[in-house]
Specification:
The chain is built from 18 helices and 11 strands. It is an alpha/beta fold. It has 3 domains: 148 residues, Ferritin (Up-down Bundle), CATH 1.20.1260; 287 residues, 3-Layer(aba) Sandwich (Rossmann fold); 40 residues. Strand 4, helix 11 and strand 5 form a beta-alpha-beta unit. Keywords: Coiled coil, Methyltransferase, Restriction system, S-adenosyl-L-methionine, Transferase.
Amino acid sequence: MSQASFSNNSTLDETTLGNWLWDAACKIRGEIDAAKYRDYILPLIFLKRLSDVFEDELTRLIYEYGESEIVEALILEDHNLVRFYLPVDARWETITKKKKDVGQYLTDIVRKLARENPKLSGAIDIVDFNATTSGERIISDDSLIVLVGVLSKYRLGINDVQADIIGRAYEYLLRKFAEGSGSSAGEFFTPPEVARLMGCILDPEPGETVYDPCCGSGGLLIKCALRFRDKYSEQSSTAPLKYYGQEWLALTSAMAKMNVFLHNMEAEIAIGDSMNNPKFLSRKGKLQHFDMVTSNPMWNQKFDQRVYENDEFSRYFSGYPNNSSADWGWVQHMAAYLTDSGRMAVVLDTGAVSRGSGSGGSNRERDIRKAYVEQDLIESVILLPENLFFNTTAPGIILIVNKQKRHPREILLINGSGQFEKGRPKNFLTADAIKTMGEIYLQWKAVDEISIIITTSEAAKSDYNLSPSRYIAKAAVDDTIPLEDAVFLLKEAEEERALADQRLWEVLAELGLGDEPVSPLLSSSPPMAVAEKKQPYGKGKKS
């Protein structure tokens, strides 16, 4: 049946999309926490997209066979005639007529769809629309009826919207809630223009594989897909990319499955803590290898040393990071997944490429950077502008590691700190800025006041400080250590002192000169307990 009776034909451009989604959110605003809006809105948008596309396919089959009754009988017998099968009671037109027990009805419907279409399992059946807390419904039937009505305003069929319009809806909601909900929302969100730049840098080729161990809502994987589709028509004979992601939070993992499904991506999304329990393994129990890794892990995450010491996959061959920051733990985890010619782009805190350099003595992060430079693995570092990410004003960097560098013993440093436009509440990279920095990297060129090519020997002379601002000065140089880095260095020094004290007491105990105390540093709770967050997946100091 046509939905023309309750859905107009307006085009969903970016502005219209935003207004529509915000209208939907406002209908349930106040009844539930803002960060929970997406948990109810997105599955319903997904359901409507499925229903509208199914209706389009039904119309095509009726045109071929002439009778709707014949088509209904055929697809009931053979679900493969359509991309996914929707029983009559799961179609949007039926849903809009439901006025009683709506929450339970929607919950039953999405679970039924997952049974009928196994590919949708874990994506569409993620929310209990009838859920209660303290004996009260989280979202009432009345609100669900209003929400369904608002979402009925636009068709989301094959010819109604662009292929990635629903993914952009997800981005919009994440961004909107990040603006108003503080750091916890920002943890889930990588600004889309940063993700586009990373997709441009990785520049996928036919048949390659892409992995994100902190995939969040799947945004970085999707930007690789969009970059690939910009280069190669979907109708061409080029081999498609294959995508793999792991996400710690079950609900966010479901969102990622939904997102990649709507983008027609051949993707496998796993649930679990990828640092302690990596899911993508070979038949021999070794880490699976991928051509590309793209990720934005939580910045300066804290892991117990046992995470590294007890590793069974030989990931941390260049050294153990300190307790104060797992940045280089994540880098080594990702690099271990690369093929012999693999490459990766990862977003990190700016201090990850400079901390410890020039301080004298030994420093774990600096020593790991040294190992990576000496092994000629670091290809480029891109300094991003300030105030792009939603729970910090810190700029961040993109670190590019390449096991088969195009220019051995060289490192391209790009200072993109000025490549932005002011926005409210956050700055943003323009399309021109993305193009400029992407071309500088792909064409490997030095540009006055933006990029410079240094040798690994020059990096060694600077004690392996790879901060682009050190080499590309846009104004008078300020050698003052940023407060955030100063605090980090203080914590690092305290950790080293605690470890030294512990070793001293162990030696004294062996000599019978004292009882061994238990160091608070070495008796912490399980590794992940100290960093209770979704590997932000996507979105650490940061879909």
